[in-house]
Amino acid sequence: MIISMKLHAKREEIDEVRKQVEHFGYKVHSIEGEERVVIGVVGVGDVTACMESIEAMPQVDNVVRISAPYKFVSKEFRPGKTRIRVNGMEIGGDQFVVMAGPFSVEAET
């Protein structure tokens, strides 16, 4: 995640954002320019709660997620097909599989 602070953010405001990010268990890498500070957030896991918390802070200008929360199951992370076997049937292979089962709407009420 990338956090862009508002122009001319004060040191205390920057430190407050850093502490909030660290509270969620992520590491912080700051890039300090003449007018603006950008904070890079590094870590493993879903950053949604952290991101929402940081976005609500008044000294923060913009927050951008740089990786998808589903990255470990995406084609970018694992390009091959996922194949599993259930009762001798391969799911995710070359054959088309149709599955059905008992649903709550099928029960008599």
Q: What oligomeric state best describes the polypeptide chains here?
A: single chain
Count up the helices: 2
Strand content: 15-25%
Helical proportion?
10-25%
Output the strand order for the largest sheet: 2-3-1-4
User: Alpha-carbon distance between the termini?
Assistant: 49 Å
Overall pLDDT level: 85
Rg from Cα: 22 Å
The best one-word shape is elongated
Q: Would you report the number of β strands?
A: 6
Biggest β-sheet strands, sense, barrel: 4 strands, antiparallel
User: Regions with pLDDT < 50 over 5+ consecutive residues?
Assistant: none
What class, by secondary structure content?
A: alpha+beta
Order of helices and strands: EHEEHEEE
Structure in words:
It contains 2 helices and 6 strands; from the N terminus they run E-H-E-E-H-E-E-E. Helix content is 19%, strand content 25%. The chain has a 4-stranded antiparallel sheet, covered by helices on one side. It starts with a strand and ends in an 18-residue tail after the last strand. With 109 residues, the chain is of the alpha+beta class. The protein has helices at 11-23, 48-55, and strands spanning 2-5, 27-32, 37-42, 60-64, 84-86, 89-91.
Question: What features would you highlight for this structure?
Answer:
four-stranded antiparallel beta sheet, elongated, 19% helix, two-stranded antiparallel ribbon, 109 residues, alpha+beta
